[in-house]
Amino acid sequence: MSDDKPGCSFGCPVEAALAVIGGKWKGIILYHLKNDTRRFNELKRLIPAITQRMLTKQLRELEADQVIHRKIFQEIPPKVEYSLTNFGLTLTPILKTLQEWGIEYIEKITKIRNKA
Questions:
Q1: What angle do CA 104, 106, 107 make, to 5 degrees?
Q2: In the predicted model, is pLDDT for residue 7 greater than 70?
Q3: Domain residues for 41?
Q4: What's the number of domains the chain is made of?
Q5: Is residue 4 part of a domain?
Q6: Are 61 and 26 in contact (CB under 8 A)?
Q7: Is position 43 within any domain?
């Protein structure tokens, strides 16, 4: 059985998945949401290298793709929480596999990158 679909380049399912979760920050954001609901500033503290603008952009894209849910509380000051949707929860095994792969190969990756 082939993964090729008419009108789709080779690897289309992978391309589709990466279009939703790819990029420098989305995987890290999803990792921090996999077990917990988080507020914006909490995510910002957990990912200190991301700018506020980029975090906002990535959260909006994940929300538009229905991977995360944004819950707004009508209070002062405004409170917003982010969590995985049921669709987003389907990514949990993928995130776990990526984490396990990273644990196994982090030293090798670090050595390779330090040589460059």
A1: 100
A2: no
A3: 12-115
A4: 1
A5: no
A6: yes
A7: yes
